[in-house]
Amino acid sequence: MDIATIIGLLLASFCIYFSIFVGGASLGMFYDLPSIFCVIGGGLAAVIICFPMKTLLAFPKVSLKVVLNKQENLLDVISTLVTLAETARRDGLLALEAKLPEIKFPLIRSGLQMAVDGADAGTIESVLRSEIESTSRRHKDGKALMDQLGKYAPAYGMIGTLLGLVMMLSNMSDPSSIGAGMAVALLTTLYGAVVSNVFCLPAAEKLGYISKQEMIARELMVRGILAIQSGESPRALEQRLMTFIPPKKRPKK
Question: Does the model's pTM come out above 0.90?
């Protein structure tokens, strides 16, 4: 679970609530069902228009990934690759076949299976990079869903505000209703801003960050697999892969 995301959402919610509390208002003043329906429903409708159904069906999973995500430990990946390199150097590349079921990283398992089967370095790299590109495209689609919802929510908030103003101005014969009507009209703008800037856009940036970190881990795996296939020494491999780790986070020897 991503604790930073939870903390951020709670902090943003608290800041909004605290501002309402200090201002002497009640939460009930900020509830309006038609405004919520306009912003949420309208934003979702716009997103549905933007994407094919196959992409839309992944939206719940994408939303959960903002909070429930597990990033690869690069030091763990390096340790796995170095251990496999030692086996290949000592017992030969074919000895890795018995180790494949124990490898917890699917990309490493797939790459080494091709190496054991006799595939050349060019073929292995081409297949692995195609897999990485496919994963990257799926990640971009997921981020785009959040980006578009964050983009359209404020627009529908403005649409709701305009609708409220039209309805309010059409009833100018009752001056006592103008203040309440204006408040309700402005709530849709508020809802659009909150949905966009508290939830959707930060979530989209988090998805982009998660994708970037995963691509770094996969690039590290590809380089490690190709080094093992070429017979590079475990020590040289470890030194090469450690360049992916910030100096302060590298294990001290």
Answer: no
